[in-house]
Structure formats: structure tokens, C-alpha cells
Amino acid sequence: MKNFCYLILLVAIIGCQNEEGFKIDNEYEQDYQEFKKRIHEEHIYYLSISDMFELDSASPNTFGSSPENKFQLKDSTAPARLGSIIFENDSLIFHSSPNVEVKLENDSVIDTYNLISLDYRGHSINMYHENYSWYVNSLENVKLLRIMDSRNPEISKFPGFQTYDLNPEFIFEAKLTYYDSPKVIEVPVTQGNTREAEFIGSIEFEYKGQTHSLDFMEGNFIMFGDKTALTETYGAGRYLEFTTNDNKTAVLDFNHAYNPPCSYSGFTTCSYPPEENWLELEVKAGEKEALLNKS
């Protein structure tokens, strides 16, 4: 009986560890829960986007709930006019409406602000009024105004996101190769368009005797697809970041794969994996297809 119990325990231990020694233990699960919390918060953020408008350089871009605005918000309870955005030479100037208090992240109140300062994503600074916030996203020759509403009904409808059970089989010690100069590849983007993306290296791993490789971008960022797409996972592919051990090896953990923003909101813009990054295998790890309750 003792030998039988020991055998069961041994099988349980081996079942949570792969051939490369990666295992799912308490510390791993705690870290993973932190990852899930961050991803959940990002999903809620995407679901809070209630409106998106393409700015017009030739006229004032007024926005609010009133139909007299150039851009009318869906929420009829919003202020009649939150403000306007005007192109002035090389600047993009926001003007708040009278009696509408607009704040920045540091809580300072502003009447006029230059939105042309962009971060690495092409996003301007966020502005806030009560449960609303907004920013401008620059995409090549297009500037988009995105409106967020922390009370957007889509948030309360969200049933949470689903993932595969944690699987040590999809944690790999991977080999890194950095390119002498970035490889430029045309990648699919939202609405059937393409854009040029720079990939700085490749990451190679072995699974069931087969070698697979993926191109990665700055920030150890990977866009990939696999044979679970359309049946169990998001059809356009998933995202993943990896951690480096040194300049030659990395830990590639597909349990941390997550869906692009476009799987949750039509008001986002996404890049998708190039053809080279579609794997000829089923990656049964990470986030599954988005669960969205539209009732």
C-alpha cells in the first residue's frame, strides 16, 4: 500500500514537470495569477472603449453627447460637449468646453493642451472628466480619437476570460538568434490592411522532436498563430512575451499567451502574426477565444 501511494505521488510530481525541468509549483502559480490579473485589467480597459473617431484636420473636432458635435458619443448622459480638438500647424490642440472640468493623470485641471506629444505607441496623454477619458492615437497619416467610459455596459457583460489549464509541456528553454539588422516583414493589421514591422531576431524551440522558430520584435514580443486558431483560440493569432536568460537563451512559456485587443473591442487596432509565425502544431496553452456576452 505504501509503495502504491508513493507511485501515485511520483506520477503527480512528474505530471507537473516537463523534460526540460520546468514545473508548475506554488511559486509559478502565484506568478501566473499576477499575470492573469494584469491581463484581466487590460481586457477591461479595452472593453471600456466606447467610441472612436477619425480626426479631421480641416475643421474643429467637437465631441460630446449633443448631435450638434462633429462626433456624437453613444452615451446620451455624457456632457453635451466635452471639448474640441483642432489642428494648428504641427500641433494638435485640445480645448475644453465651458463648465466641463478636464484633468490630466496628475490631477491638474486644464483648459487647453497640446496633444501632439506621443509615447512609443503613438498615444497622446490621457485626459479625464468624471467616468470618461480620451486620447489621440496616431497611425501613420491617420489620427484617431478614442473615448473610454469606465461605466461602459460592455464591462458588466464581460464574463471573464478563459485559459487552458497550466501546462508544463509548453514551457521551453529556447535558443535566441539576433539579426545583424532588423528584418522588415509586411504583417496583417485590422480591417484587412498591412503594415511593415521590424523583427530583431528569432527564437527556436523543440517540441516532440520537431524544431520550431518564431520571429520576435523589440521588447521580446511575439505575434504567433497555431492550429488551435478558429476552433479554440482567437482566429487571428495571439501575443506572447518571453524572458531572456542571456543573449543566447530564453524561457518561452506559452501559458502566458494572450489575445490581441481586437478580440475584445472593435475600437482597437491590432497587428497580427506574419505567415512565418504560424506554427504547425496545436499550442494548448494560454488564453482561449474571447468570451463576450453581447446580450
TrEMBL record:
UniProt-listed Pfam families: DUF1684 (PF07920)
InterPro entries named among the record's database cross-references: DUF1684
Q: What's the protein name?
A: DUF1684 domain-containing protein
